[in-house]
Design goal:
The complex is a heterodimer. In chain A, the strands form three sheets. In chain A, strands 6-7-8-3-9-10 form a six-stranded mixed beta sheet, with helices on both faces. Chain A starts with 7 loop residues before the first strand and ends with a strand. In chain A, a hairpin with a 2-residue loop joins strand 9 and strand 10. Chain A is of the alpha/beta class. Chain A is 32% helix and 28% strand. In chain B, helix 3 packs parallel to helix 9 and helix 4 packs parallel to helix 7. Chain B is globular. The two termini of chain B are 27 Å apart. Chain B is built from 15 helices and no strands. The chains are: A alpha/beta, B mainly alpha.
Chain lengths: 259, 328
């Protein structure tokens, strides 16, 4: 059990979008060093929860970041603490990878604070961590899906956030890149970051997360250790399938069955 | 690479400015132009240069620069290379305002009534777009509201033509709509310059937001850049620049669309760097287009909007072919 002081405490989060209730009464506590997996069927409200935690949409309830209400932080302060990796990773222009990663420093720079040596070091570090140095000058439009996912993750890392919110970071990636990204999230947590990751691959969720939060139709169904959550009938029922859980080489494997 | 493109643009600007001030019924060489500007020449030359050709030249630079800058800002904001200054209906509404001034005969009483009424049209267009799109406007909502305003102003402009009292009035309106910088005075400069400069400044403030928007709206907001304020800044800036530009020079197409395309690669694809570069590029393009209108004067001077479109359309075609080649 992790007893570090919480970075972010959200209580009774509710979100209503266009008169439709999307999230009801969700509690989330994020601690340094922990990877929290958000799981649940499509449309359950996982992305909405991430967007609410990142303060991109208004939410009822209370969210405390570093003990202060989220709304009491300036947008720049908030952005320095919380990194958000959206699922839609479209980049509008053919930016070179290095320039793309440098965008992650925006919260730390400003009209009166130019891009300096600290920023350059953070960008170089992020490029090195994800082995992007050979691709530094490559336009992002010419990257493969896996390379692009690494570049977009490096963009968030360059901002050195205390909390990382990642929305389906492994969607559409080959197995090698999926492992690559999950190992990177794990490494970040070990270094003291609080990580929240939306996942549909339950085997990855069981293997890489410390805790799972299962959401269904906007409500919290279960919250706890991965195998405990995945082993319940509610978990399978929320997806409308059965879940067979086994072990291969000491690692948990979750196989969806039936329909 | 970047430094050399800036040097090239500034050289073209300087050369174009000197040429533009020398060109006209009374041809002046560079020496006469400089003496006319800074003293030492004949009084007649000085009057021609300072009162007739300097305003025209400076207006070409200001309007071209403003249109280039607005195009770059809109493309960055919409994350789309097809963004252009006419998009929010501002230029259409400014043109409508100006047309109504001609139609109502105000211009013959008071020449500056034309640009003033154009500015009123542009202001109304911005207000209408904001009203239609609502306070929490999405980018798509803003564009759609702009399309509606543009369509309405286009329809009303056609109605004015339709109901025009005489063929001469129609001709005057149509010629004005084609865009020109001929016979613009220092009064026009003093009227337009403050709007274009203030609007341009507002647009230049958007650089960081536009860079962040390369990653999408959610990512930009998560980087601490509130988009609501950026939308207002963009609309106000575009309204001031495009409203003033259209009110003074008429409808001038393609500058805001083509210039950012041309320069994007020299700016490392970064929207924030593209803004000042597009201002310089737009100024160069319009200045030389205005020179071109005076180079072929068989019977009547070519209209500026005609020249920019004639230059812009083939270039755009070439660009489309190039993009297609790169895609395959």
């Amino acid at each position: 059990m992790n007893h570090d002081p919480a970075l972010l405490v959200a209580k009774g989060i509710g979100v209503t979008l266009r008169h439709r209730v999307v999230l009801v009464d969700i509690d989330v506590t994020l601690r340094p060093g922990e990877v929290l997996g958000l799981i649940g069927p499509n449309g359950a409200g996982k992305t909405t929860l991430l967007r609410a935690l990142a303060s991109l949409i208004p939410a009822s309830g209370s969210i405390l970041l570093d003990g202060r209400p989220l709304a009491a932080h300036s947008p720049a302060e908030r952005a320095q603490r919380i990194g958000f990796l959206p699922q839609d990773g479209g980049v509008a222009w053919a930016l070179p990878v290095e320039a793309l990663v440098a965008l992650g420093r925006i919260p730390h720079t400003g009209p009166f604070r130019a891009f300096n040596a600290t920023d350059r070091a953070a960008v170089a570090q992020a490029l090195a961590t994800l082995e992007l140095e050979p691709l530094r000058q490559r336009p992002v439009t010419e990257l493969s899906g896996g390379e692009r996912a690494r570049a977009l993750l490096a963009r968030v890392l360059a901002g050195e956030p205390a909390i990382l919110l990642a929305d389906e970071p492994v969607a559409g990636l080959d197995p090698a890149h999926q492992l690559r990204v999950m190992h990177e999230l794990r490494r970040l947590a070990t270094a003291g970051t609080a990580v929240v990751v939306v996942l549909h691959d339950l085997t990855l969720a069981a293997r890489f997360c410390d805790r799972l939060l299962l959401i269904d139709r906007g409500r919290r169904l279960l919250d706890g250790a991965p195998l405990e959550v995945l082993g319940t009938p509610e978990a399978a029922a929320s997806y409308g399938i059965r879940l067979a859980i086994g072990q291969i080489g000491g690692r948990p494997v979750v196989v969806p069955e039936g329909s | 690479m970047r430094a050399s493109i800036w040097i090239l643009l500034l050289l073209l600007l300087l050369l174009g400015a000197l040429l533009s001030m020398g060109l006209g019924p009374q041809g002046l060489d560079f020496g006469q132009v400089l003496r006319g500007l800074f003293g030492g020449g004949s009084q007649a030359d000085s009057i021609i240069v300072v009162q007739l050709r300097l305003p025209r030249t400076l207006l070409a630079i200001l309007i071209g620069g403003g249109l280039g800058l607005t195009g770059a800002a809109l493309q960055g904001f919409l994350r789309n290379p097809l963004g252009e200054p006419g998009l929010f209906g501002i230029s259409g509404a400014a043109a409508l305002g100006a047309v109504l001034a001609i139609y109502g005969g105000l211009t013959s009483v008071f020449p500056l009534a034309l640009p003033l009424s154009g500015l009123v049209g542009a202001g109304l267009a911005v207000g209408l777009v904001l009203l239609l799109a609502g306070r929490q406007a999405s980018t798509l909502g803003l564009v759609l509201a702009g399309v509606a305003v543009a369509a309405l102003s286009g329809a009303l402009t056609s109605l004015a033509l339709n109901l025009a009292p005489s063929p001469f009035a129609v001709l005057e309106i149509v010629f004005w709509l084609l865009g020109s910088l001929a016979d613009r005075s220092l009064d026009h400069l003093w009227l337009g310059a403050p709007f274009i400069l203030v609007g341009g400044l507002l647009l230049l403030l958007l650089g960081r937001t536009l860079d962040a928007l390369s990653l999408g709206e959610d990512a930009a907001q998560s980087l601490g850049l509130p988009l609501g304020r950026a939308r207002l800044l963009l609309l106000a800036g575009a309204g001031l620049v495009v409203g003033a530009a259209t009110s003074i020079a008429g409808a001038i197409g393609f500058v805001g669309l083509v210039v950012p395309h041309l320069l994007r690669r020299f700016c490392g694809q970064l929207p924030s760097r593209l803004l000042p570069a597009s201002a310089a590029g737009g100024a160069v393009l319009l200045l030389w287009a205005d020179i071109a209108t005076r180079l072929f004067p068989p019977i009547t001077e070519l209209k500026l909007g005609v020249v920019t479109s004639l230059l812009g359309a083939p270039f755009f075609l070439w660009l489309v072919l190039k993009i297609r080649r790169e895609a395959t």
